[in-house]
Amino acid sequence: MDLGLTGRTFVVTGASNGVGLAIAAMLLADGANVGVCARDAGRLRAAVGGLPATAGARALCLGCDVLDGGAVARFVGDVAAEFGGIDGVVNNAGQSLMRPLFETTELEWTEQVQLKLFSVLNTVRAALPWLRRSPVASVVNVNAILARQPEARLAATGAARAALLNLSATMATELAPDGVRVNSVCLGLIDTGQWHRRYEAAGAGQPYEQWTAELARDRGIALGRIGSAEEVAFPIVGLLSPRSSYVTGASLDIGGGVSRYV
Ligand code: NDP
Question: Which domain, by its residues, includes 218?
């Protein structure tokens, strides 16, 4: 099925690893141009630069911290100038903070709120003039099941995630008259750099595969395993596609059945 993405241009933040990298790979393979960023530009170019592309699609890789509004405006402007417009944004850059509630400092709370809210606000604000001109404009905010299902030692990240879910719904309502769809995906446990870092920090003394299998069992993931970045990328690219033209203000869980709410 043609997803209608060929020749379109998408901004993907945090694309040097994990979910963002898998999204960039899928878009390029589908013939869409991507403007991608991460703070470490060298690692980003090494990861995205060699990805195969079809139909003449290209990637523009730029170093940018999504918390820096000025840098985001320059990054998004450079992407629009390079490709002649922007048709969609995936707000993916981010990470979580594991810390007991009353050991979380005020600064860490502020950083989590900034990372979850301003990374999205900065990027969408910068892209909006081009999104308003696109006939297929779409924003996907990468969120976490944690937004609805809180967990111990993730208070600041969870609260900021819940706020982002709420913000995304408002954004969908306010931007609908401009023809810009806005949706959220809420991830469970996905096999990316985040979990490799936690595995190393845990010093578990067992192979990574065994450690993640036990993690999946302990968390009660219905499918019995953690997910891959590619399994996340497909539903996100599907939401970007104009074939999802009647989907806005929605939130899709991608967690292999880890969520416990209905
Ligand atoms: P990874 O740690 O594998 O990759 C994160 C990417 O974001 C990297 O490219 C990193 O590059 C970039 N990044 C981080 N901070 C910034 C910043 N301030 N500005 C620009 N780029 C940044 O993460 P995942 O692929 O696992 O996660 C992707 C998204 O999904 C994140 O928002 C994450 O919180 C969310 N998520 C992931 C889950 C999981 O289990 N993996 C679960 C729930 C949510 P660099 O360091 O060079 O900036």
Answer: 191-225
